[in-house]
User: Fold this.
Amino acid sequence: MQREQVLDTALELLEKQGLATTTLEMLAEKLGAQLNTMKPFWPDREALLYDCLRYHGQQIDTWRRQLLLDETLSPQQKLLARYDVLAEHVRNERYPGCLFIGSVK
Assistant:
């Protein structure tokens, strides 16, 4: 199983279940994996949360950088692109509010 798959699944759980209730056990069950196979990488819940949030931050930075460097779009189109991505995520019952943090040049 790839790290990205685990973290994507964990992010989905975090978005649907919330930060306070998501556990390593829930993640292992959702992935169909044994908890002890995950412990070397994420020894506890806090390690998983930290890794997930760091991974998600990298995803957002990459997406925002690509959007900002797209010279074919006006500043208004760049702003509207955030709404398009947000709408797509909401249709998939995912709520990445951090898409709207930061500025558009």
